[in-house]
Specification:
89 residues; 6-stranded mixed β-sheet
């Protein structure tokens, strides 16, 4: 079963949730009320340390999943239901 963590570095950069399962890359998850309020610097810091894995932003105003590329950092924007569907497998 996956384990849910919180990540913060010594410079105060943090990721809301990190889902780690044995033998799988960590999934980084940020939660925002609005997808427009997401700023990628914290997730970028996390991925400098742990380069592989999915990056997700869960936001109240996302109706359909989409992907944005932040200068090479690909992030999927999902609804709460979309997040649930990803981990229901």
């Amino acid at each position: 079963a996956p384990i849910v963590h919180y990540w913060r570095n010594k410079f105060g950069k943090e990721v809301d949730f990190v889902v780690a399962a044995r033998g799988r890359d960590p999934v980084a998850i940020e939660c925002k009320w609005s997808a427009d309020r997401f700023e990628p610097s914290c997730m970028r810091s996390f991925r400098q340390r742990y380069p592989s894995g999915d990056n997700l932003v869960v936001a109240h105003d996302v109706e359909h999943e989409y992907i944005r590329d932040f200068h090479g950092l690909k992030i999927s924007f999902v609804s709460l239901q979309g997040l649930s569907d990803r981990f229901a497998q």
